[in-house]
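Hello,

Our lab assistant flagged a job as stuck in the queue for most of the afternoon. It eventually completed. Since we weren't sure the result was trustworthy after the delay, we are filing this so someone can double-check. Below is the sequence as submitted and the structure that was eventually returned. Let us know if re-running is recommended.
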Amino acid sequence: MSIEITDLSFSYEKHQVLHNIDFSAHDGDLVAVLGPNGVGKSTLFRCMLGFLKPQSGEIIINGHNIRDMDSRAVAREIAYIPQSVSPAFNYTVQDTVLMGLTNQLGTFRSPKKEHVERVLSILDSLGIAHLRHRGCARISGGERQLTLLARALIQNAKVLIMDEPTANLDYGNQYRVMERIGSLADKGYTIIFSTHDPNQALLHTSRALVLSDGHVLASGPSKDVLTEDVLSSLYGIDVSIHDLNYGDSRCMVCTPSAAAS
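-- returned structure --
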């Protein structure tokens, strides 16, 4: 088991954000966390990363209680990939990925040849090795998101947390990024990401965690959890789920009910 959360609650002063959260994810799971703005998705991630200390409950990462881990220990187990934004400095793709070694190298040590070789291997696995010398301000949003993913992978952590990894990307880049993320789950990584798109969860993920008002509304296999009733309750609109042919297999698609009539 990669991560287990039991009876987790968190408050900002008197405002309780998370209420008795129970959740677990295993090696190879690709988990979508869904819920409207303000339901606690980001707060849950910050607790899982050790940035916030919950008032009650436990977070166990690969058998270690996060309360007993310092920041370097957490970074060895779990990596965070933020939303892609335009960078303030035009660092190259290679240098940006090498920044992921900070916790391993310390402040004053420089990367060695073997570190650069590992960067090239990771970039190649994500299909962006040809961009290694390109400045991050001169690549597409999808390529920038894959660069951030590569920076997380060089930490050697097996649990990846991603904050809306396809936000602000066009449809093609959304699909390409999710395909790469899915291939990492196939290799045994545990990946947990937030999304506002139930179709993305239905198409790409194995499991879903649905949050409403800081509570777990539903949790389990995506195709079982993301039902018409759950999604209608979650977003306050009537939705319909359709079972469609998708290549050699079938997929489920969510639409507003009015669009289905």
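-- support follow-up --
The delay was a queue issue, not a problem with the job. The result is valid. Residues 3-226 form a domain with the Rossmann fold fold (CATH 3.40.50.300). The chain is about 35% helix and 30% strand.
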